[in-house]
Amino acid sequence: MIPLRAGADGVSFSVKVHPRAKTNAITGELGDALKLSLTTPPVEGRANQACVEYFAELFQVPRASVTIAAGETGRLKVIRIAGLTREAALKILEGALAGR
């Protein structure tokens, strides 16, 4: 499992985004990052928006709780989920990886 960093404001982890995929899904791990396939193209921030929406739905939190802490213009991003414990995030991500 990828490393999850817990802070006072929530949990953060790395994601490698693959735009223009057939479906939105976590497709595995790549080093210390999750591989996330998104159907949207990386144009005008649409892939970033889709990334935030995907994780908000996965973790069942408001979109405002999900931020891209680093990597807005690249494929490797750091996602921060506010108001979530490390243990809860780990359980959800393990379920998502098992269901791929």
Structure write-up:
The protein has 100 residues and is α+β, with helices and mostly antiparallel strands. It has one domain (5-98): Conserved Hypothetical Protein Mth637, Chain: A. The protein has two helices and six strands. Strands 1, 2, 3, 4, 5 and 6 form a six-stranded mixed β-sheet that branches.
List the helices and strands and how they pair.
Elements: E1 5-7, E2 10-18, E3 25-30, E4 33-37, H1 46-59, E5 66-70, E6 76-82, H2 86-98
Parallel strand pairs: 2-4
Antiparallel strand pairs: 1-2, 2-6, 3-4, 5-6
| CATH architecture level-2 label | 2-Layer Sandwich
- Please report which band the strand proportion falls in: under 5%, 5-15%, 15-25%, 25-35%, 35-45% or over 45%: 35-45%
**Total number of strands:** 6
In total, the number of domains comes to 1
Class based on secondary structure composition and strand pairing: alpha+beta
Biggest sheet features = 6 strands, mixed
CATH homologous superfamily caption? YggU-like
Shape: globular
Radius of gyration: 12 Å
Reported by name, the CATH topology is: Conserved Hypothetical Protein Mth637, Chain: A
- C-alpha end-to-end distance: 14 Å
Which CATH class is shown? Alpha Beta
Share of residues in helices: 25-40%
Low-confidence stretches: none
Briefly, what is this?
The protein is α+β, with helices and mostly antiparallel strands and 100 residues long.
